[in-house]
Design goal:
Number of helices: 11
Order of helices and strands: EHHHHHHEHEHHEHEH
CATH superfamily of the largest domain: HAD superfamily/HAD-like
Helix content: 40-55%
Number of strands: 5
Largest sheet: 5 strands, parallel
Number of domains: 2
CATH class of the largest domain: Alpha Beta
Strand order of the largest sheet: 3-2-1-4-5
């Protein structure tokens, strides 16, 4: 028997909206081998994560341009064309988000996101403004899967961990949330999401 759920927390990227840096960079760096090198050596995942932790784009770009001056246009292109990396919502997930809110349930968002790109995403996808609130990693200086961000979200929104249901696409984030005491599930697609919602009495 699952716990009674009173709080639903959604991740954003790859749960509510699609994210793919290859979309603009397929145009900026057409050669696949060169593009792969760029993401592995220049605008890496670890570099991008620091913007999620709160580093400004100005600082981030300056750091890389100093190391790779010949890549300046492509480095600046990451932020300049960021809006192209989030081309569409996952409508099935959004429908659940809006349904749960309409039912009067307590819905919040917890996301690893840079400060300004979160504001931009909220303008592109207005449904991000509908939940009761959001914890944006860059604004609290913490990122998933750090246990402290789950604790911060719990305290900010007065959640009962045992009665909190969390959806995230990254296994490490799901594992950390479960270890903290939430009921966390991995998003892999609409069918599993429906099954998980049913299992926890939310569908």
């Amino acid at each position: 028997m699952t716990a009674e759920i009173r709080h639903i927390v959604f991740d954003i990227g790859k749960v509510l909206i699609h994210y793919d840096p290859d979309i603009p960079f397929s145009r900026l760096i057409p050669d696949a081998t060169e593009r792969k090198w760029f993401f592995e050596n220049v605008c890496t995942h670890d570099w991008n994560v620091e913007q999620d932790r709160g580093r400004t784009w100005e600082e981030a770009e300056a750091l890389l341009i100093a190391k790779f001056p010949d890549q300046e246009l492509n480095i600046r292109g990451f932020r300049k064309y960021w809006h192209e990396m989030v081309p569409h919502p996952y409508q099935h997930s959004v429908d659940h988000l809006e349904r749960l809110i309409a039912e009067g349930r307590d819905v919040t968002l917890l996301t690893n996101f840079a400060d300004d790109t979160f504001d931009q995403a909220s303008e592109i996808f207005p449904f991000l403004k509908k939940p009761r609130g959001v914890t944006v990693s860059a604004r609290v200086g913490l990122i998933k899967p750090d246990t402290a961000i789950y604790d911060t979200h719990t305290k900010t929104f007065n959640l009962d961990p045992a009665k909190t249901f969390f959806i995230d696409d990254a296994p490490a984030n799901v594992d950390a949330a479960n270890a903290y005491g939430w009921n966390a599930v991995q998003y892999v697609g609409p069918e599993k999401l429906d099954a998980d919602l049913k299992r926890f009495g939310l569908l």
